[in-house]
Amino acid sequence: MPEPRLAAPADAAEIARLRSENILSEPLDEAWLATCADQLALRLQDGGDARAYVIDALEGGLATCALGLVHAVLPAPKYPKGLAVRIHAVATDPAHRRRGHARAALAALLDHLERDGVTLYELYASAGSAALYEGLGFAADPALMRMTRFPAEESTS
Predict the structure, then answer these.
(1) Which of these, 65, 109, 124, 143, is most buried using a 10 Å CB contact count?
(2) pLDDT at 157 over 60
């Protein structure tokens, strides 16, 4: 099995593609894919808040990605450095599934984040991916809630 490697800014477009095609309920159009790739490329640079591990596909592009976005939280005994991560995307191209790629890329990402001092890890798990995450130490939290709010449109009167 190919080894996971730390993603570079040049991998941003492929990571955005894997997320769009394999995670989102509706794939992104070309304009949104470009926006995501451009933003992610900046965030994957040294000093950025994104960390990702990828596995290259033999035919080119990426087979798998595991992407986390690091953010600050107030320090506490369980978060001494005040660092948390939201695992934003774990995706494998359908032609490369059932080979352990997602587990390998996510395990490499978690090890990297642990070395960086991250102690709080959060993610959204679909029913089909819960076993993968549980096998790596994640547990369901019934208190976790979520909401999306869009700004109210301004009146044109």
Answers:
(1) 65
(2) no
Q: In whole numbers, what is the pLDDT of the chain averaged over residues?
A: 94
Measured between alpha carbons, how far is 10 from 25 in angstroms, rounded to an integer? 25
Sequence-ordered alpha helix ranges (H) in 76-117: 101-115
d(CA 114, CA 63): 24
Cα–Cα distance measured from residue 155 to residue 19, given in angstroms and rounded to the nearest whole number? 35
Task: Show the domains of the chain with their CATH numbers.
Answer: 5-135 (3.40.630.30)
The per-residue pLDDT for range 1-33, each reduced to its tens digit, is 789 999 999 999 999 999 999 999 999 999 999
pLDDT band at residue 134 under the 50/70/90 scheme: very high
| Crossing angle for the helix pair 12-22 and 30-43, to the nearest 10 degrees | 130
